[in-house]
Structures are given as structure tokens and as C-alpha cells.
Write a structure and sequence with these properties.
Layout (H helix, E strand, L loop, with lengths): L1 H28 L3 H26 L3 H31 L33
């Protein structure tokens, strides 16, 4: 049983590292700030779950289970809030969208067509 936990723990840690590497590749290759923030936020949440769960399987104990659950919960909450705050600040400062992206925030609530043109700086109260 110990060998199975060791192998599974190492596999999860390597999977988490690959998720982080994919996020780094996304940051380098994506064209605008919004896609980069999305890649990092998503991969950060998934990668940390893999790595911490893998570490738990390598050192299993009741106290470590409590710590891992707490770590994952806090990280997922703060990561989502942080990612949205960064994306919102990029939008409010007028960071342009690329031509392949739509500015859904600029469309009104009446359902007007989305404009594939780059975003213009929004009016801030």
C-alpha cells in the first residue's frame, strides 16, 4: 500500500508541475493580458491541488489532511478573487483586447451584437 501511495503521490506532483509549465507557456504565447491572466489563474488552481495532494500522499497523516484541505480551500478562494481583480484592473486601465477577442463587458444588456474590434478604454466614474 505504501508503494502505491508513493507512486500516486509522485505522479500527482509531476502532473502539477506540468500544469504550471503549461501556464508558463500560455503566459509566453498568449497575445493579450486577459488570456494570460486566465491561463495563470486556472492553472494555478489546478496545479496547486495536484502538488499538495501528491505531497499528502507521500506523507499521510490526519493533521496533514486537515492542512491540505485548508490550503486548497484558501488557495482556490483567493486565487479566483485575485485573478478577477487583475483582469478587472486590466480592463479598467484600457488594456486592449486582440482582434480575436470580444468585449462582452462593453455590450449593453439589451443584447447588441458583440464587436470584434479592440476594446476602447471604458469610462470610469
Amino acid at each position: 500500500m505504501n508503494e502505491i501511495l508513493t507512486v500516486l503521490g509522485n505522479v500527482l506532483i509531476v502532473a502539477g508541475a506540468l500544469v504550471f509549465a503549461t501556464a508558463a507557456l500560455g503566459v509566453a504565447r498568449f497575445r493579450d493580458a486577459y488570456m494570460r491572466v486566465s491561463a495563470v489563474g486556472t492553472a494555478g488552481g489546478l496545479g496547486i491541488v495536484f502538488v499538495v495532494t501528491g505531497a499528502l500522499l507521500l506523507q499521510p497523516s490526519v493533521s496533514n489532511v486537515v492542512k491540505v484541505v485548508l490550503i486548497i480551500t484558501i488557495h482556490l478562494i483567493t486565487s479566483a478573487v485575485g485573478t478577477m481583480a487583475i483582469a478587472r484592473s486590466a480592463y479598467l486601465t484600457g488594456t486592449p483586447l486582440k482582434r480575436y477577442a470580444f468585449d462582452e463587458l462593453a455590450a449593453d444588456s439589451l443584447g447588441t451584437e458583440r464587436d470584434p474590434e479592440p476594446a476602447r478604454k471604458p469610462a470610469v466614474d
